[in-house]
Amino acid sequence: xxxxxxxxxxxxxxxxxxxxxxxxxxxxxxxxxxxxxxxxxxxxxxxxxxxxxxxxxxxxxxxxxxxxxxxxxxxxxxxxxxxxxxxxxxxxxxxxxxxxxxxxxxxxxxxxxxxxxxxxxxxxxxxxxxxxxxxxxxxxxxxxxxxxxxxxxxxxxxxxxxxxxxxxxxxxxxxxxxxxxxxxxxxxxxxxxxxxxxxxxxxxxxxxxxxxx
Amino acid sequence: xxxxxxxxxxxxxxxxxxxxxxxxxxxxxxxxxxxxxxxxxxxxxxxxxxxxxxxxxxxxxxxxxxxxxxxxxxxxxxxxxxxxxxxxxxxxxxxxxxxxxxxxxxxxxxxxxxxxxxxxxxxxxxxxxxxxxxxxxxxxxxxxxxxxxxxxxxxxxxxxxxxxxxxxxxxxxxxxxxxxxxxxxxxxxxxxxxxxxxxxxxxxxxxxxxxxx
Amino acid sequence: xxxxxxxxxxxxxxxxxxxxxxxxxxxxxxxxxxxxxxxxxxxxxxxxxxxxxxxxxxxxxxxxxxxxxxxxxxxxxxxxxxxxxxxxxxxxxxxxxxxxxxxxxxxxxxxxxxxxxxxxxxxxxxxxxxxxxxxxxxxxxxxxxxxxxxxxxxxxxxxxxxxxxxxxxxxxxxxxxxxxxxxxxxxxxxxxxxxxxxxxxxxxxxxxxxxxx
Lengths: 213, 213, 213
Fold this sequence. Notes:
The structure is a homotrimer. By secondary structure, chain A is mainly alpha-helical. Chain A is 72% helix and 0% strand. The first copy, chain A, contains nine helices and no strands. Chain A starts with 8 loop residues before the first helix and ends in a 15-residue tail after the last helix. Chains A and B meet through α2 and α7 of A and α1, α2, α4 and α6 of B. Chains A, B, C: It is found in: Cell membrane.
């Protein structure tokens, strides 16, 4: 069949960064809706950990990461609170944030593939699992902020996740050694996402004006 | 106690049609919100498979259908893409769609009852399981399109599902042979739904103008 | 380690009251959106039982309460229908409702702590479990009513749940006898919540006006 590289300990460290970055972007969204401090923390934690949670619930993969390791909840909560304190500074670091968020997308996607691979899922489900892990947290954030999810409307976000997952799961038949494989996937995913932001790559949109049923 | 007819292989074929039909109606809704192609596919798949997914998660019934058989994901995704290509045509086929959607409601309801029955749920839960399977996908679609779910506001949709499930689970004490039973349920549910659309049957509405707490 | 008092049978009775109260407040919200009767019942049941359902799904704690005991579904549904009939009266009983809703918050929080404690969760997860059980139903209600959840924006609601859970799980080191412990937690939580309503205690808000990314 097909194999995947083992989870790297570097991935582990990157996952803390990813959780913090996604919680901070969610906190900024919370601030735009004038949520209170508790709401900011909750939205941050739900966004940062929601993708992995939905994946685990769909795959029946228990216990959930943050139930087994509540430190993830703490990281997300603290990152959200820090965002409140440093909002002006955080905002000026917009570019740094986009990079951190992109790292989050790629790292979460790889982690999601790993989990599906551990439960012996088929290749399509491994890729879907990566995509859910990378993208579903942002969808929850937008639902809770009462907006049509950005994921469905703009930018190459889900697509980057799918390409990343596809490469991670198959290495396109190259079969390099595991460390190189992980590194290549990370570089590919991050480059794709940053290029997509820089050059405003977008999928074509489907615009339909028929009346409601 | 009470028994239910075995799942028919006809039901199996009808379930493919139902998945495609629900994905296509979701794709039209996505087009009204100017989603991109990836978003259209995702909304289609979530709508078509979301009801069964929620049911399985609530009943702890793993693995999920589309995890075990990713072909369902492919059907939903392809149906959504076809809708993009044929939007004008699809729109003109409005009546055909309403019929397909009604078939979906009835087939999903029966499939949902089957699953609950397999896990030895009690009669009320069998009916609720059918209703969730038939209706929850549309609720997810409306949440993701940022609207109050149509299900809660209009038409006999959930009610048709409940009556269909009740008949399917009990045959109202008639106990015909299984094939006839399945057929009768299908005919009953489909007729009810189409009559409800044709004559605009609606539940009474609860209108309350008290101020917010 | 740390221990928690056994669930009291009084808690059991209070949980019926809590389910009914939360279903009734949801029914009023449904009436403001002109939902039909079936929608009112569904919104009531989802609000009243949604918190515990999300908790159980996240903890992998099956079967769900309402699947094992469909009587809870019936209580929520009947309470919602009664609200339709008595809407004017119910509205006049605003203060009684706030008290019942506060009882619901505290009772659900304690029940959520109990469940997490039964599955040997760590202290932070016990408290989060209590908070999810107490608060998530209202978040589902607001999502389905197409609003930014009240929970994230106003009043001490989640915070009361956290303090209640923290006291319930640790008794702050006092270790009284179980009945007294349960009673003290109940009195503490209820007082906090009612004081928060009476004196309009609020968390500071995070207001951020940076443009969207």
